[in-house]
Amino acid sequence: MVKVGIDKIGFFTSPYFIDMTELANRRHEEPGKFLIGLGQKQQAVIPPTQDVVTLAANAANKILTKADKDKIDTVIFGTETGIDNSKSAAIYVQALLGISKHARSFEIKQACYGGTAGLQMAVEHIRLHPDSQVLVLAADIARYGLQTPGEATQGGGAVAMLVAAEPRILEIEDKRSFYSDNIMDFWRPLYRRDAVVDGHYSNNVYIDFFKQTWQTYQRDYHCNIDDFQAMAFHLPYTKMGLKALRSIVNQSHHPERLLAQFESSRVYNACVGNLYTGSLYLSLISLLANSETLQHGDLVGLFSYGSGAQGEFYSGRISEQFDRRPLKTDMEAMLSKRQKLTISQYEEMYQAGLPLSGGDKQFDTASDHSPFILEGRHEDQRIYRQN
Ligand code: HMG
Questions:
Q1: Which percentage of the chain shows pLDDT scores above 90?
Q2: CA of residue 280 relative to chain centroid, distance
Q3: Which atom of ligand 1 is nearest to the CA of 199?
Q4: What's the alpha-carbon Rg for the chain, to the nearest Å?
Q5: 2 CB less than 6 Å from ligand 1?
Q6: What strand order describes the sheet that includes 230-233?
Q7: pLDDT score of 1
Q8: Is-contact 202 311, C-beta < 8 A?
Q9: Average pLDDT value for the chain
Q10: What spacing in Å lies between the alpha carbon of 239 and ligand 1's midpoint?
Q11: Cis before residue 24, ω within 30 degrees of 0?
Q12: Is 136 left (phi over 0), alpha (psi -120 to 50) or beta?
């Protein structure tokens, strides 16, 4: 069977962040609760000049050549921060980046699972059409509201993945297990910008779905935990993945190996926060860029979870051609260039987006130097600009 998987991967987040110790102090919490209890050091703050379209366009812009743009025949956008109830965010990104107009473009949604659904659809498409390429975008802005328990688990950003035959990063295996149920752990009614969440219940459901999919995967493919050199998780906050891993790690003869790989897989998520659909893929980037022991051919398990709820466990092998150095250089350059906001500046920026009630709006774009920005809204149309 032809090898199919992630050939290129790119990440983009806001140029602004807050420090979690400063947020804890302002909210009269022990900093240890956010830093250790949740495993978060910093949080991306998304300015009004960025939405999921610009975040995704900025992520994809980093990885696509002109030849890629001509060859892509499908653009799949996974998001739960859609900007329109009808038109997909994929069409905007396709146009902003100059991707072939002969591609089909659409958006899919199932909370944080949308990126994985898109990736698996892309893999199946390439297995049938190995000469084509698919662009998968996973972009979100995680919002719970100021001074809520969820506030410490906000964030945002986008991951862009080019899926192709003979991939140079991760070969995705044709092995996966699913578990889904109608659960009200987290959702966002159409009239709200901030999610509704039953936080502790959502943690329990996440662990339950992880165990369900892990057991089914083991049973169906006759494998055990020591076949895996690492596991990457959807990370709504980084301690969540650690809790899931701890729930099975004693099945391993080398628990310390998986726990050490987990530390590599959460480095960037701890500095960005939750980006919903993109969180598992930011964790994968973090693992790939920071692990000094992962080798070509090693097997990585991936757990995707989207509230509501859908779980999937699947696996991939590190490609022969993979080189972690350019990925690490790019990630560190981007994260270190960000500007730290005070908590008051963050609170002001948090309230500044496009009102749900409609109306024209022009943003001050002077301080956002990202390649693609949102200038505002005019006659119900979002106005995008390339810097
Ligand atoms: P909370 O109730 O304020 O926090 O909110 P807590 O009291 O549970 O404390 C958190 C942890 O800090 C605990 O650790 C404390 O012990 C520890 P745990 O017992 O859980 O291991 N702690 C300390 N540690 C060190 N030093 C200290 C200290 N004090 C306390 N001084 C909660 C936490 C996660 C519930 C909240 O932030 C929330 O509701 N977040 C949003 C929901 C969420 O992220 N759920 C995750 C699973 S659902 C999911 O992943 C899907 C999602 O991404 C959405 C989608 O699919 O679209 C969210």
A1: 100
A2: 5
A3: 39
A4: 20
A5: no
A6: 104-108, 72-78, 133-142, 155-165, 4-12, 170-180, 310-318, 299-306, 230-233
A7: 83
A8: no
A9: 98
A10: 8
A11: no
A12: beta
Q: Active-site residue 112, yes or no?
A: yes
**Domains within the chain, CATH numbers bracketed:** 4-170+326-386 (3.40.47.10), 171-321 (3.40.47.10)
Backbone angles phi, psi at 294, to 5 degrees: -65, 140
Assigned token pair, 227: 């076949």
Give dist(CA 297, CA 79) in Å, integer.
Answer: 31
State the number of CA atoms in the 13 A half-sphere of 184 facing the CB: 3
* Cβ 327 vs Cβ 289: under 8 Å: yes
Question: Which residues, 6 or more positions from 283, have their beta carbon under 8 angstroms from its beta carbon?
Answer: 232, 233, 234, 235, 241, 265, 266, 268, 269
Distance 328 CA to ligand 1 centre (A): 28
Asked whether 21 lines ligand 1 (CB < 6 A), one says: no
Which residue type occupies 273? Answer: G
pLDDT digits over 246-295, tens only?
A: 999 999 999 999 999 999 999 999 999 999 999 999 999 999 999 999 99
Mean pLDDT within 51-71: 98
Q: Report the separation in Å between the CA atom of 282 and the middle of ligand 1, taken as the mean of its atom positions.
A: 19
Give me the catalytic one of 107, 112, 125, 271. 112
**Closest among 48, 49, 45 to 13, alpha carbons compared:** 45
